[in-house]
């Protein structure tokens, strides 16, 4: 299965971020979508820029919200590129047959953004989850919540915002499983390492957000294959004699049940929970029970196992 590649701020590894040339570069690299950030100018235009000020990404200074579009247009956003409006970025993406992911960097942009993307292949996202919910209420527009930590119940946050997808900075196997049970897609960010793309595909990522779509496109297109245990950077995990690593992550991980696993020091030096010795969810009857009862707890499975009522 091919993963969707979303060029972060266009293709910022190839061209100045959030510019029309960056969008063109993303298309040349084989991206499926481009992600752009939007803010409101002083005179009410949606401009494509990440920061609150123009200082980092242009040759000017000042706050975006205190500058008119005419003044923003005079700035050099790098290599002679100008700061585009959302209308221009969306139109170009459409011409290039690219979808567009629009991140609202501020609240209160919902009506304007909806007006620009309605009818397009687009996803509107934000860290402001209330704004994401408002977008959904404005029409048939796909949306996504952005999270930079890994909350206790990220899928519940998406459901509360009525979002179609989650854009997480951090992930674990359970996030993908829980999200997909609710038909919510997951697009981790910002992934620039081909090996990490391969790993996230194994976990079930629907796509990834990347600064460098040229570098990761090939890895995203590769089929998911088994990995020898000794070659896996995340080993030890579930591994039994005669069985290579597969997409067999326990939906209860990390259960932290001392009867089933223990903390170990992984190859990367991090302390993580290992269930290498656990066979509970691999017992055929338990596995079937867990399939039919995806919300079952460790204690439920252990009790059912002891009682033999599976």
Automatic annotation (TrEMBL):
Annotated InterPro entries: GP_PDE_dom (IPR030395), PLC-like_Pdiesterase_TIM-brl (IPR017946), Zf-like (IPR007212)
Domain annotation GP-PDE: ranges: 3-220
Protein name: Glycerophosphodiester phosphodiesterase family protein
Pfam annotation, one family: zf-like
Organism: Candidatus Methanocrinis natronophilus
PROSITE patterns: GP_PDE
Gene3D superfamilies for this protein: Phosphatidylinositol (PI) phosphodiesterase (3.20.20.190)
């Amino acid at each position: 299965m091919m993963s969707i590649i979303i060029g972060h701020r266009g293709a910022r590894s190839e061209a100045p971020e959030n510019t029309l040339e960056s969008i063109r570069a993303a298309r040349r690299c084989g991206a499926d979508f481009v992600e752009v950030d939007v803010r409101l100018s002083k005179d009410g235009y949606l401009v494509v820029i990440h920061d609150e000020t123009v200082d980092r990404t242009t040759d000017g200074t000042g706050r975006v919200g205190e500058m008119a579009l005419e003044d923003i247009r005079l700035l050099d956003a790098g290599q002679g590129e100008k700061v585009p409006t959302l209308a221009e970025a969306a139109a170009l993406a459409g011409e290039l047959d690219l979808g567009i992911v629009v991140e609202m960097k501020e609240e209160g942009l919902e009506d304007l953004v909806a007006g620009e993307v309605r009818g397009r292949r687009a996803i509107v996202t934000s860290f402001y989850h209330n704004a994401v919910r408002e977008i959904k209420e404005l029409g048939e527009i796909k949306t996504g919540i952005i999270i930079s930590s890994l909350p206790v119940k990220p899928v519940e946050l998406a459901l509360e915002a009525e979002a179609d997808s989650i854009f997480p900075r951090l992930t674990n196997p359970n996030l993908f499983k829980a999200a997909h049970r609710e038909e919510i897609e997951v697009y981790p960010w910002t992934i620039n390492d081909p090996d990490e793309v391969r790993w996230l595909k194994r976990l079930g990522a629907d796509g990834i957000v990347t600064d460098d779509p040229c570098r990761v496109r090939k890895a995203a297109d590769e089929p998911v294959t088994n990995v020898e245990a000794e070659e896996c950077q995340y080993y030890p995990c579930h591994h039994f004699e005669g069985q290579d690593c597969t997409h067999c992550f326990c939906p209860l991980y990390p259960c932290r049940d001392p009867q089933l696993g223990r903390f170990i020091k992984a190859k990367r030096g991090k302390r993580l929970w290992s269930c290498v010795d656990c066979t509970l969810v691999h017992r055929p009857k338990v596995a079937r029970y867990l399939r039919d009862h995806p919300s079952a707890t460790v204690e439920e499975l252990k009790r059912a196992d002891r009682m033999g009522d599976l």
